[in-house]
Amino acid sequence: MSKLSETELFDEQLEKAKNLHGEVCGGIVSGTKMAIHAMKELNMDFNQKKNKDLIVFLEIDRCMADAIQAVTGCSLGKRTLKLKNYGKFAATFYKISTGEAIRIASNKNEKSEYPEETIEEKIKRVKNTPSEELFNIQKVKIRIDENELPGRPRDEKFCSICSEQIMDSKQNLVSGKPVCKSCHEGSYYEII
Ligand SMILES: [Zn+2]
Ligand SMILES: [Zn+2]
């Protein structure tokens, strides 16, 4: 376990978030606080190379997301970071082995509540305020399909239309044949 004090731990983790994001902004400060709170609640060690027991569901793809990735070590490529884009400043931290999950959401409009606050002031305020005062924190239950879990692929198919490979059971079945999402539903791209 870390022997750092509460504030030293915050500074250490904020530095990691800064390195990933490129700067310290408001979202990075909040995201760092959220991730630290969740990791502690779930009894997880910081700064591990691999954490195969944690999945984070992110509800936004803004600055906060990078802080959570930096602190938890969860990432898209490890299949431990899932984007559920509700456009909300919130994330759920799910411990696979025990099924425990904590959802943490920002409960205030920071910009209107602290219009004059500098980033240095925000760092100080957030560092020294208990998470419970900054956020709504809920215990939740997660339903997750086994095809979404980390580890070896459980299903691999080829699209019967475009022939491209489809991992993790993302295909649709059309007349019993696998069809990828872009062939089936239409795509975000157009071939030119
Ligand atoms: Zn930012
Ligand atoms: Zn296809």
From TrEMBL:
<feature type="domain" description="Formylmethanofuran dehydrogenase subunit E">
    <location>
        <begin position="21"/>
        <end position="136"/>
    </location>
</feature>
<protein>
    <submittedName>
        <fullName>FwdE-like protein</fullName>
    </submittedName>
</protein>
<dbReference type="Pfam" id="PF02663">
    <property type="entry name" value="FmdE"/>
</dbReference>
<dbReference type="InterPro" id="IPR053194">
    <property type="entry name" value="tRNA_methyltr_O"/>
</dbReference>
<dbReference type="InterPro" id="IPR003814">
    <property type="entry name" value="FmdEsu_dom"/>
</dbReference>
